[in-house]
């Protein structure tokens, strides 16, 4: 079966082997971040709707389980091509995941912009781990970097996160993404130093761009800046290789796709490249495949023009490896 809304599992530094569910199916989001790896937001909205109905996603998840017996998954992760909490079927999707994969914890990725709504907080609270992002508390930076729907403010998002923290007994992994010259200011750092202890997340990750963003203005910060922010915010500094992280190693298992035939590998590559540009090395890591297997599968896709290399856009690629994306991205 071809899967439209289930993808992976891919190796994640925070979630181990993460089986992704795309709750939007299109680029629908409450923000249009400069750094978005998925691409520019097509529909900018805060309106909730069953963009992909629960039954559609859960039927696919059940089919994926039946086709992949024994494949190890650490988390089922609600995310996708936009903001997953916009899907008004999210609560039903989380409870369906628990029925279909009862031993697998559920994670929700969110940009935090809908947490002011009680219904969204109640649904998100059914997950085992919630991974909110909040990149800046400076309103001008928030507008410049995250380009939110016009009603949203950084202070409103921060207040909603604090409310959620009080109500939710599960784990919160906060992510702060830094973009050079936009939100790496001392003003933002000072505000976040007050906010983070108040939120008391179980984990903080300070990240920067590692793949091309939707807009060329977005650029990664230097390693020393990121390290200083990690220190100041008591954040994790994940290894570049997620297989080296504690979370990954704790699982004690790796998905093994090496036995997949060439067609299956090609389909996995196309699926993951449809979500974000990646280098051959990143693809190998994400899909738990040897690099030469990825390179072999990429060759005909490049020759046919289905996949094309992208310019590296100022990213800190020590090895200068090209990023690949679907040609019709
Ligand atoms: S990075 Fe996340 S929040 Fe920002 S536009 Fe992309 S999907 Fe939306």
UniProtKB/TrEMBL annotation:
Domain Radical SAM core, residue spans: 14-258
InterPro entries: Aldolase_TIM (IPR013785), GTPase_Obg (IPR040084), rSAM (IPR007197), rSAM_sf (IPR058240)
Pfam families: Radical_SAM
Obligatory cofactor(s): [4Fe-4S] cluster
Keyword Hydrolase: no
UniProt GO molecular function: 4 iron, 4 sulfur cluster binding; catalytic activity; metal ion binding
Keywords attached to this entry: 4Fe-4S, Iron, Iron-sulfur, Metal-binding, S-adenosyl-L-methionine
The name this protein goes by in its record: Radical SAM domain protein
Lineage: Bacteria, Pseudomonadati, Thermodesulfobacteriota, Desulfovibrionia, Desulfovibrionales
């Amino acid at each position: 079966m071809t899967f439209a809304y289930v993808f992976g599992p891919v190796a994640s530094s925070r979630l181990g082997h993460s089986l992704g569910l795309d709750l939007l199916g299109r680029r629908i989001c409450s923000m249009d971040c400069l750094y978005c790896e998925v691409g520019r937001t097509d529909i900018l909205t805060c309106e909730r709707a069953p963009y992909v109905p629960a039954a559609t996603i859960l039927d696919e998840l059940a089919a994926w389980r039946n086709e992949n017996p024994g494949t190890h998954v650490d988390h089922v992760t609600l995310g996708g091509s936009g903001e997953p909490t916009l899907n008004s079927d999210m609560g039903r999707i989380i409870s369906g995941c628990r029925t279909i994969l009862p031993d697998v914890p559920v994670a929700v990725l969110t940009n935090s912009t809908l947490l002011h709504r009680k219904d969204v907080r109640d649904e998100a609270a059914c997950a085992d781990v919630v991974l909110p992002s909040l990149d800046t508390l400076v309103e001008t930076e928030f507008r410049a970097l995250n380009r939110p729907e016009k009603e949203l403010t950084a202070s409103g998002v921060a207040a909603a996160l604090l409310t959620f923290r009080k109500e939710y007994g599960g784990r919160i992994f906060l992510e702060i993404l830094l973009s050079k010259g936009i939100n790496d200011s001392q003003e933002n750092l000072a505000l976040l130093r007050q906010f983070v202890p108040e939120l008391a997340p179980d984990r903080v990750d300070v990240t920067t761009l590692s793949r091309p963003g939707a807009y060329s203005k977005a650029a990664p910060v230097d390693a020393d800046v990121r390290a200083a922010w990690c220190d100041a915010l008591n954040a994790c500094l994940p290894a570049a290789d997620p297989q080296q992280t504690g979370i990954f190693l704790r699982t004690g298992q790796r998905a093994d796709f090496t036995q997949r035939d060439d067609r299956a590998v090609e389909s996995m590559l196309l699926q993951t490249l449809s979500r974000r540009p990646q280098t051959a090395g990143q693809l190998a890591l994400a899909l738990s495949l040897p690099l030469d297997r990825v390179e072999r599968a990429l060759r005909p896709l490049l020759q046919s023009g289905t996949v094309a290399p992208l310019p590296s856009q100022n990213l800190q690629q020590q090895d200068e490896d090209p990023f690949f994306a679907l040609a019709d991205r």
